[in-house]
């Protein structure tokens, strides 16, 4: 019998939008090389691998080229698969043991809420090539544990950005978040995420980036609850609530494909 693989579009309730993640619920741990090869074969921004451990699940995430320490959309997709398959009860709080500590997911009607560690960014001078690669003027540059944050003046700048990805890949961080206050009614801020150094030219919707953007915009807008839009071609919607050193990320998910790996 092969290994099941489920593809879920995360941070959306409409198929073929949001951010697709592959999810492999394993009967037992697998070695890192095998997981990396499967992630390369899936060729999505992240593939999640999880197996039962203690009172929850051990969860790891791989891009086509590297393992990452924190990923929002593939965590959302993993929780969705556990509930949809019946492995977790609808009212059950799902616990994930990860390289970023314990993460939890709960269902609130049609929404899934993830409890993530906040990853606040501190103001920092732009490194060489950053603004040149983006082709923008920055209102602010900051750096979190994982990423650079570049605030620009308008939503239009975020949406029309066409960065030099090869030059952006020379910057030694997981990714680059470009963000602005939203001009579209109903939203608080918008963003895009580029991670060419991690094998992800542009990530459609990046949950973990909002663990940084929540505190960032809390300091600037004087509020702790946001409706955010990631303005990639696929697009995605997130609820973001800052609670001290934690950030609750709300999103929806839809399964688009179920399959089976037939090789060992």
Throw out a few tags for this protein.
264 residues; alpha+beta; Diaminopimelate Epimerase, Chain A, domain 1; 2 domains; 18 strands; 20% helix
CATH top level class name of the largest domain: Alpha Beta
Structural class: alpha+beta
- Report the biggest beta sheet as strand number plus sense, adding barrel if it closes: 18 strands, mixed
**Poorly predicted parts:** none
CATH superfamily label of the largest domain: Diaminopimelate Epimerase, Chain A, domain 1
**Total beta strands:** 18
Count of DSSP-assigned helices: 6
Q: What is the oligomeric state here?
A: single chain
Structure description:
The chain is an alpha+beta fold and 264 residues long. The protein has 2 domains: 3-113 and 250-261, Diaminopimelate Epimerase, Chain A, domain 1 (Roll); 122-244, Diaminopimelate Epimerase, Chain A, domain 1. It has helices spanning 32-42, 73-85, 130-134, 155-160, 165-168, 207-221, and strands at 3-10, 19-25, 46-53, 56-62, 67-68, 94-98, 101-108, 111-117, 122-123, 140-143, 147-151, 175-181, 189-195, 200-203, 225-230, 236-243, 246-251, 253-261. It has an 18-stranded mixed β-sheet that branches. A hairpin with an 8-residue loop joins strand 1 and strand 2. The longest helix is centred in the last third of the chain and has 15 residues, at 207-221.
